[in-house]
Amino acid sequence: xxxxxxxxxxxxxxxxRGHFIPKQFEPTGTYxxxxxxxxxxxxxxxxxxxxxxxxxRVIEVIDLAVTRWNSSSTVSPVLVAAxxxxxxxxxxxxxxxxxxxxxxxxxxxxARIESTRSELHKYARKQNHGIKERNLLKMLLPVGVLxxxxxxxxxxNTNTWASKRGEVAHNSAKxxxxxxxxxxxxxxxxxxxxxxxxxxxLSRK
Length: 205
Prior knowledge:
0% strand, mainly alpha, 8 helices
């Protein structure tokens, strides 16, 4: 079963499709200049929606795992992964006395877990800038998604599309290849389907 957040994503992309993608595609694949401009806008805005979605879902998953730990000491695979993939780790104390006196350097387990959650929040909310493969892995692996869970074809296609999104967003239209609205719409549908599969996977964590 998918999440409410994925339903919101789907509805938003449908809304963008209605605003920017032609209701009927031309058999010749040739359109007025305005259609190509709208298609460029569609890509940029849809990318932003995908990015926001996966950031929100990762935060939901880690928050739920920490809540379960705090309420019942339940150790989930999400919590184990978050701690395992943490980039910065606290030192081990030399003695209990040292630990008790220097909690900022040697925090207790609950504080370490909370710090791990905060670090993932910080990456998702402030440091992540896209849905390229490296962005997705840095968010998904720490919430228990395994490498074998990921569709490598989908991941590669998403990475390619996201890379081209950067070209659209940062280069003048004069130096860009015109985006075919039908192909763009088809690609977005495939990427959305993959995020739907990820959403169901995250819901089972």
